[in-house]
Amino acid sequence: MSDESPPQMTRIQKRNRELILEGALTAFAAHGFRGSTIDQIAESAGLSKPNVLYYFDSKDEIHRTLLTAQLDMWLAPLRAIDPEGEPLEEVLRYVRAKLDMSRDYPRESRLFAHEVMQGAPHLNEILGGHLRELVEAAVGTIRGWIAAGRLAPVDPHHLIFSIWALTQHYADFDTQVRAVLGPGHDPFAEAGAFLDNLYRRMLSP
């Protein structure tokens, strides 16, 4: 087996990979994995189809690359929950981080939603492995806070599920939210105030 490291990509190669992933994100978020094609990805990236296939062997590989990077980003705030921190503020900070991600990365959120609704064929191993481990660590921390009387009693799993649902909704159903609210509203600012009040009232011991 060779001990040589893989060759470093040039600046142009890195740029082309970024263009392809950006183009794929646009296509997948709009059409889902099944409804997107390499031709659509190439057109969105401003590259030729052979150029796309030079960097990625298949649509599946592009999709997995995007999902893996997205999941790493999505899990960062969960990893950042500090067992030694102030419990209520740690939970509220997590809520705010998830809402900010929905505001700043709506296409990524919709990409993930598409994948899960299809049965998560590209993420099953990660969802049942690494994600579950991280959630269980957070659940253990929350249970410890509750046992110490530092948070009101709640089911920690469903607390986390509710945070996901109540924050990612604003990305996945952005059109519906804005249509119902009408002009003159900032959905994310209003949601931030509402969710802070909701969880503060629910979790204060």
Automatic annotation (TrEMBL):
Q: Which residues bind DNA?
A: 37-56
Q: Which GO terms describe its biological process?
A: negative regulation of DNA-templated transcription
Q: List the Gene3D superfamilies hit by this protein, alphabetically.
A: Homeodomain-like (1.10.10.60), Tetracycline Repressor, domain 2 (1.10.357.10)
**PROSITE patterns the record matches:** HTH_TETR_2
Q: Which Pfam families is this protein grouped with? A: TetR_C_3, TetR_N
User: Recorded GO terms, molecular function?
Assistant: DNA-binding transcription factor activity; transcription cis-regulatory region binding
Name of the protein in question = TetR family transcriptional regulator
Question: The HTH tetR-type domain covers which part of the protein?
Answer: 14-74
State the species of origin.
Paracoccus siganidrum
Enumerate the UniProt keywords alphabetically.
DNA-binding
